[in-house]
Amino acid sequence: MSRVKSWGVIGVVTIASTAALWMAAGMQTIKQNFDGPYYAVVAKSWYDRDIIRRNFSFPLPLEYYAAHFPMYPLLISAFAKIGYLNGAVIINLVATMAVGIVLYEIVREFKWGNPLVLALVWLFWWPRIWIVRSIASPETLFILWMLLSLYFFQKKKFWWAGITGAAAVLTKSPGILLPIAYGLWLIANYVKTKKITWQAWPVLLIPMALVGVFGLFYVRTGDFWAYFHSGDNIHLQLLPFRVFDSSQPWVGNFWLEDVLWIYLVGAVGVWRMFRKSAVWGWFGAVFYTTILFVSHRDISRYALPLAPIIWVGTAEILEKKEIKWALIVLTIPAFLYSWNFLVHNTAAISAWAPFFSS
User: Are 136 and 92 in contact (CB under 8 A)?
Assistant: First the structure.
């Protein structure tokens, strides 16, 4: 199949599968899903506590909104006239198609497997992906920037790797893991070649962008460290595997077998990714290690950026005939799981008018 036709398949499947969930759950439910309304609050208020207090009635401390980074709200604000949440959903849909196409092109260029199969697997086969890409959420936008940064670094186009990596960290805080992975690759490369890759210095744009976010917080809230003062939002622990302590406030559950499966699939995928690319493997290893220290029931969502790396790493397995048929059949329960999750994961919104520009 030609590239253009493959892009068309990715676009049609993305839109059709998203529309199926929209019709099943209803658009009001879609727009109420966490954490979309909170990003819309930021898009309207830009962290101004007085604006938040006057317009919104969520039972949250005003400091909480600094947990939501500015790139996604910036894009949402362009849709103020048609409604911030409407815009947020549209952006996510476009970002999802873009990720599918970018992943297709990367896999095709580096010959890492069947690009169309991997793009379609990414659209459905992570416990939370079908849900997250169908609501107002920054995850797919973050994954888009992440993939582009890894691609450009692999190609040694370090300025573009830094720029797209900076966009990633402006979208979500885990973007700061990119320069850590690049640093590990540079060290490993030096050990191997005894040469320092000075040309990679533009990746310093990524931590500089994070400083810029904190500077924005200082201007808007008076607190440079507002992200760290946003409440109980940072779930990293000093010891790994604390998620299995059900007394933890964001765990509260001892039915955690699925977390073990995520750890297993993640480890296998990252290990195999090293065979194809040390750059991607190092990022996968850094991100995977971080996940082990997360103490939160929703490990599946935290691990979403790992999904493309895991699927590319295990491409040879996914392309087996029996695996493809199993994935196709299991799309039905995946849809039912996603539908059930959506209708129970909503924020109470008593007034919709504040979500439109005044």
Answer: yes
Which residues are within 8 A (CB) of 229 and not within 5 positions of it... i.e. 6 or more apart? 63, 66, 223
pLDDT by position in tens, the chain (length 358): 789 899 999 999 999 999 999 999 999 999 999 999 999 999 999 999 999 999 998 888 999 999 999 999 999 999 988 999 999 999 999 999 999 999 999 999 999 999 999 999 999 999 899 999 999 999 999 999 999 999 999 999 999 999 999 999 999 999 999 999 999 999 999 999 988 999 999 999 999 999 999 999 999 999 999 999 987 777 888 889 988 988 888 787 888 899 999 999 999 999 999 999 999 999 999 999 999 999 888 899 999 999 999 999 999 999 999 999 999 999 999 999 999 999 999 998 888 888 887 5
* Nearest Cα to Cα of residue 86 among 341, 357, 343: 357
Helix boundaries (H) for 194-298: 205-221, 257-273, 278-292
Nearest to 352 by CA among 23, 85, 9: 85
Provide the whole-model pTM: 0.96
Q: What is the dihedral of CA 346, 67, 261, 144, to 10 degrees?
A: 90
Helix, strand, coil percentages (3-state) for the chain, rounded to 5, are 75, 0, 25
Q: Where are the alpha helices (DSSP H) in 127-256?
A: 129-132, 139-154, 158-171, 177-193, 205-221
Half-sphere exposure of 297 (CA within 13 A, CB side): 10
What the block records as the tokens of 177 is: 């893991």
Contacts of 208 (CB under 8 A, 6+ apart): 166
Which residues on adjacent β-strands are paired with residue 236? Answer: 294
Q: Which residues pair with 32 in a beta bridge?
A: none
Counting DSSP H helices and E strands in the chain, the numbers are: 19, 0
